[in-house]
Specification:
313 residues; mainly alpha; three-stranded antiparallel beta sheet; 3 strands; 75% helix
Amino acid sequence: MRDEVLKFIGINEDENLSDTDLLDRLRRYRNTLHPDVHKGLEDIYNNKMAIANDLVEKFEKYVKEKMVTTLTLSKNNNKDLTIDERVFEILDLEDKNKNLEEKLKSETEKTKRLDTVIKNIDNEKNNKTINEYTNYYKSKKSDFVALTTTVGLTLILSIIEQIRSIYIAIFNIFPFDLKIFNIILFIIVILTVLKIAIGNYISYEINNLFKSILTTKIRIDFVNQFEKTQQFSELDVLEFIHEYIRSKKLLYLALKVPFNNRKDLLIDACADLFIHELFDEGIIKSYTTNTAIKSFRINSYQNYFCNWRDVNE
């Protein structure tokens, strides 16, 4: 390989010329063959440049393999390394370090993308939970149809009541006092309107509830309860959410209405959402227990509390 390089450059063998020096001369000679330097002879020097590039690549590989062999033998025999060998060892370590840095950068970018995907999944889950409970209590088309039908029947029967001439016919159809029938229909209308009103109120309040439990103040109020122990369980979260909903008296009362009673499910959903938010903010981390109830530890409580207090002051 060395003879091929010497022949290409056009010099004689020299024992004082090391492989690395010869490689350096080959590179400098290659630069003299660049087509831009030889106007009008581009085709010829394009071909020579291609040959030189191929020879440089092969000789670099040859020198590197030879250096690796020499380094291995020198280390095994406890011999001092030459300057060229030390330079090669340093360059080789630099290449390895560069490759490791590129790999670390690539893995870091993958981690960031994965964190973004996880956060988007959590946000979609939270939004789905909010929409589910908001839409459950929101008035449906069937409610308005029932109300319209009931009101229509009431108006019709009120008109009939004013027409005394057909009182006998109505009485034959309904074997009881027509006023009693009107009272029953009126009660139905009131109950229907009340159901729709309560449903809309609960839907509105639940939407505000989900927004409020995601605020910094609520998180701080909860974490403050466990400043000493620095840990809590899933039951503590459920109790906190239950008491928080109880503080909203009208909503709590409306949730206890029989046809809208999903209070326990709502508390569970709020607790799950609240725990997810604490995880996302890095406030808590889970730890293993011997029970079926999940337990959590508070992470960096003082830093989080101080940051929140500074912002509010």
